[in-house]
């Protein structure tokens, strides 16, 4: 997996280098900028997390975050504010600007590393594609969670293998699967399963899904696919 990239923006150069050193030990790729002006010239969308000091030059960390929030390419990048300003109003300002965490100075490096890991874990989990709960083609529908197939709103009784074959074909419309591929994906380690078993299940499946049976197409010498 590619290393996650972090940008540290703080006008304390020594602190930037300390954070960079320790975060790189943890396996992150880290860049630094000593002002918001410098940071805004960088490729911000390439980073998975920003550590922003609040009190910096003409453009504060809060102002930089506000600028990033107005750009759809950078609005979703997680931000942790690092600051000596720890009043309730300051913290609320940070969170209202979309901050994912707020760490008051002075802090321990271990604390920062732990909070960075927590934020990246949360945001990475959000980015993971969710499994489709329902597959549909016109009025043919597969409810993955409830293991239920319907045609024109009427439930169709499918065996476990028939359901899994239909799911495989619907999830990969237009892709041709050989008998061997279907066997390896659906029957996996089960023994004594013949190629003929696939043909029998496909034949039954076509009959059960009525008008959509014709969408399960045989490619002679290659296998089966679901065509729209």
Write the layout of secondary structure elements.
Blueprint lengths: L4 E5 L3 H13 L3 E5 L2 H4 L9 E5 L7 H9 L9 E5 L4 H9 L4 E4 L4 H19 L6 E4 L2 E4 L4 E4 L2 E3 L3 H12 L7 H9 L7 H14 L7 E4 L3 E4 L2
Parallel strand pairs: 1-2, 1-3, 3-4, 4-5
Antiparallel strand pairs: 6-7, 7-8, 8-9, 10-11
Commentary on this structure:
There is one protein chain. This protein is α/β, with parallel strands linked by helices and 228 residues long. The protein folds into two domains: 5-125, 3-Layer(aba) Sandwich (Rossmann fold); 134-226, Winged helix-like DNA-binding domain superfamily/Winged helix DNA-binding domain (Arc Repressor Mutant, subunit A, Orthogonal Bundle), CATH 1.10.10.10. 39% of the residues lie in helices and 21% in strands. The chain has eight helices and eleven strands. The chain has helices spanning 13-25, 36-39, 61-69, 88-96, 109-127, 160-171, 179-187, 195-208, and strands at 5-9, 29-33, 49-53, 79-83, 101-104, 134-137, 140-143, 148-151, 154-156, 216-219, 223-226. The strands form three sheets. The protein has a five-stranded parallel sheet, with helices on both faces. It starts with a strand and ends with a strand. 26% of the residues are buried. The model has no long low-confidence stretch (mean pLDDT 88). Residues 5-120 form the Response regulatory domain. This is DNA-binding response regulator. The modification 4-aspartylphosphate is found at residue 53.
